[in-house]
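Follow-up to my earlier ticket, as requested here are the two runs.
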Amino acid sequence: MTESADTTPRDPDAVRERAREALLGARERTALLTECVTDGELTSQVSPLMSPLVWDLAHIGNQEEQWLLRAVAGQGAMRPEIDPLYDAFEHPRAERPSLPLLAPAEARAYAAEVRGRALDVLDAAPVHGSPLHDAGFAFGMIAQHEQQHDETMLITHQLRTGPAVLTAPAPRPATAFTGPHEVLVPGGAFTMGTSAEPWALDNERPAHRRTVPPFFLDTVPVTNAAYQRFVEDGGYDDPRWWEPRGWEHIRAHGIYAPLYWRREGGVWLRRSFGVTEPVVPDEPVLHVGWFEADAYARWAGRRLPTEAEWEKAARFDPATGRSARYPWGDADPGPDHANLGQRHLRPAPAGSYPAGESFLGVRQLIGDVWEWTASGFEPYPGFTAFPYREYSEVFFGGDYKVLRGGSFAVGPVACRGTFRNWDHPVRRQIFSGFRTARDAAPDRGGPREGVR
């Protein structure tokens, strides 16, 4: 295997400090997302696709209690009667508002008490000796879980129809990207997945060899301007471009543009966190489902990359033949590498973050928008469910499509070159975009002029 070396600290104090920072950073964001609205808004449901924010808040605390206090520390249950209320598999999102959930003040107090006890556990817990303890895995898993729910809560904020309650600075302006429209990714074998990343989740494991033919990949994600050309060329009215289920879906639901877009007086507008504004041409397109991404790619004479192709473009270093943790190398992401962690409330312009460019010259593979791939969500060879089947195993198969790379809403702890996300092809409320690919041989020609 030629996988990147594990650069995570192993000294027990350093492991505990890393876990503490990850937990505190996630909780700071959770507070931001839940304290900016009234108690009434915390308990209301803005869409049947999403939970009330107060459910997410208490669920975060309940998962932390179950894994850090009960599983790691061996403590008894604090409030065993609420476990079923916050079991995501027992109660679908649409019915959660009807449950006897903890009130906002109770939910905050519960999550805070759990966190206080968990930090005490962290001070004394072993950081080796079992898979749950090694390198602080359980603490890293819980920090990632909270950041994932923070992203879910941010999606709920975007679905709100009231005035803006969240603010963040805009990404730095970027000079118009003038690099090549696409990059050649060499064919051959590479190491996919990981066996070395200590906080990697079960579906990222184990590292294994995968071979892909040579292909071309968009240098940057597809932009609003490029997608607008698809819309205005009648892309949503032409069944040639659509997978049959996708065509049926957009017809049934009257979909004619990305979610939150509308045309007014000859101008495309979008709603973003309570603010209506013109669609920004050079930003990566956002809030499109897999069916839309696939249709655009066909219209452009291209296709979506497979998951293996995406990961090779993101991790493979042709000079050494090894797979790095991130496109830029093994260092943890910093503000110059990628747009992550809700630092901004929108994608950065296409071509931003040159310091985050991959070894092959592809930009913005991490952060900004989740990128749809052509692949279904399946286990890697040698997969073992850990520490519970419901994280990944129960989702394998079906119609789930894999997304890669994270978005501006993803916490850095929950995003890396091996991280896998998945969702149904119809999902558009998520912070999803895409980039396209084409086979390198036989030559099918480049993309349509001006398509990016």
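Run two:
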Amino acid sequence: MHLIVQRGTPLSDSEAARIGALFRAEDARRIHGGGLRYTLAAAAAANRAAIHELGRQHGLDTAVVESCRALSDFKLMVFDMDSTLINIECIDELADLVGKKREVARLTEQAMQSGAVDYDTSLRLRTRLLAGLPVDTFERLYAERVRITPGARALVAAARQAGLRTAIVSGGFDYFTGRVRAELGVDVDLSNHLEVAEGRLTGELPGTLINADVKARHVAQMCRELGVPASDAIVVGDGANDLKMMALAGLSVGYRPKPVVRATVNAVIDRLGLDSLLNVLGAGHPVS
């Protein structure tokens, strides 16, 4: 098993030794980006949650992987959108336009932090609070509030150059996933559709909700279409609604993840950009 650690500045030799002792890891080797790759005993690697928490306490982004696979070894890269590819939760910002952001944000947090609140019920409750919102406000919201996550463009570009199919699979809304897909050059997107009547939201979501189960089924379906096992997929997300599709993946990545996600994923990106994942995927080729 391997432990990969990164931070915003290169790690010195003395820090490499200290970190090795901290994680009870051996055989430190430098990787691109100034990070380090260590060998972990199987018993130590079994507790990802403790490793990621220790990394958080010491200002390090961490990854625990069985083998160091290159980006080109994978065939599919799937992203959540809200708070992963973009900086906001779109539903919270839409609610702000009708003066209900606090109420909706509370429901969002309950659903995404622990998964204890039934996601479908929570989402329908939230979207009904948006009833009456003119859809022509979406353009302004996107222009003024949506920002692409640092490193997302570089990561998507590298994935496509390496021959991976890329996808957004989101519990968010198709207007926004469509815009982000086009802006980043992602191949496909799947998300929920907000019903509109006479130019305003009705508050209803027609069709099948894109919840955790549907997300996982869609990832599995894309793998079947590509003729590859799910272990050839990378899944990147942040909340409880992403856990089931992450569980299928050969590499699961939490970007600024909620605690329930942090405890289970292979890689945690707390401080660096999404493109720092490329250093994890290149860790099999240390620089020295």
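The only thing I checked on run two: The domain at 72-282 is CATH 3.40.50.1000 (Rossmann fold). Let me know what else you need.
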